[in-house]
Amino acid sequence: MKTGECYAKKRSLEGKVAVITGAGSGIGKASVSLFLREGAVCVAADLNYDSVAALQTEYAEFRDRIKPFKVNVADSGEVEAMIDFAVRECGKMDILFNNAGVMDGMLPIDELSDDKWKRVMDINATGVMYACRKAVRYYLERGQGGVILNTASLGGLCGGRAGLAYTASKFAVVGMTKNIAFMYGDVGIRCNAICPGGIQTNIGLGFAKPSERGIKRTQNGMGLMDRLGDPFEIAAAAVFLSCDAATFINGATLTVDGGWSAY
C-alpha cells in the first residue's frame, strides 16, 4: 500500500481478521464494536462465552462477522486453539489484540500470597506470552507479517497505580511488546501496547477485600485524574494501532490516560 492510500479508505480495517480477548465487556467489547464498524471480522474471545455470544444479538447488523470463542487465556492449549479457530473459520488472522486482564486488589508485597501472584501473572503476563508466541509463529509461517496489540496499563509504566502483582505483570507486557517488535520488525510483524489510565470498566480492584495500605497509598495520585476514560476511547486507539495508517509504529507504548501521567 502506498503512503496515504489508507487514509482514503472508508473503513480502516476492511478485510482484516482480528482476535480480541476479554471481548465480553469493557475495552474488549468496545473494541469489537469499533473493529466491526471499521470492516473487520472479529473472533470475540472471553472466558464467559455467554457474554461474547450475546454480541451477535447486540450487534445484529454485524452478526456474520462476529465469531464467539470461549478461552481461558491462562491455558496455553486454549489460547492456541483460539488462534487456530480464527484461521480455520476466517481463513487467516491479521490482528491479535491481547486485552484480557485482572486486577490485584492493590496488594503490596507483604500482603501478597503465592496463589494471588500466580493468578494475576498467569492471566496478565503468561497468557499474553502464549498468544503472542502462537501469533508470531503463524505470521512467520504465512510470510505476510501481522499485528499484535497488547493492553498494558499506566501501571506498566509507573509504580504507584496498582498492587505489586498487577504492576509486575503489566511491566512484563511492556517488555514483551518491545522485544517482539524488535525481534520481528524486519519481517513485517508489528507489536505495540496501549497503556490506559483509569477507565470505566468492570475490572474493579480484582479481589473482594482490597488492601487498605494499597488503597491509601495509590489514592495519593488519584486526584490528578480529571475523569475516567470511556472504553471506546481505548478502542479507538486500538483501531488506529491496528490499521495501515500505523505501519511505522512498532514497539510503542501509547499512553491513553487523559493527561493523568503528564504531571
User: What's the overall average pLDDT, rounded?
Assistant: 92
Apparent shape = globular
Percentage of residues in helical conformation: 25-40%
The largest beta-sheet arranges its strands as 3-2-1-4-5-6-7
The percentage of residues in β strands lies in 5-15%
Which secondary-structure class do the elements indicate?
A: alpha/beta
- Main beta-sheet annotation: 7 strands, parallel
End-to-end distance? 39 Å
Low-confidence stretches: 1-9
Output the helix-strand order. Answer: EHEHHEHEHEHEHHE
What is the tally of helical segments?
8
Radius of gyration, rounded?
A: 18 Å
**Care to count the β-strands?**
7
Characterization of this structure:
By secondary structure, the chain is of the alpha/beta class. The chain has eight helices and seven strands; from the N terminus they run βαβααβαβαβαβααβ. It has a seven-stranded parallel beta sheet, with helices on both faces. α1 (26-37) packs across α8.
Keyword list:
single chain; 263 residues; alpha/beta; 7-stranded parallel beta sheet; 8 helices; 14% strand
Write the layout of secondary structure elements.
Elements: E1 17-21, H1 26-37, E2 41-46, H2 49-53, H3 55-58, E3 66-70, H4 76-90, E4 95-98, H5 114-142, E5 146-151, H6 164-184, E6 189-196, H7 212-218, H8 231-242, E7 253-256
Parallel strand pairs: 1-2, 1-4, 2-3, 4-5, 5-6, 6-7
Helix pairs in contact: 1-8, 4-5, 5-6
What is shown here, in short?
The chain is of the alpha/beta class and 263 residues long.
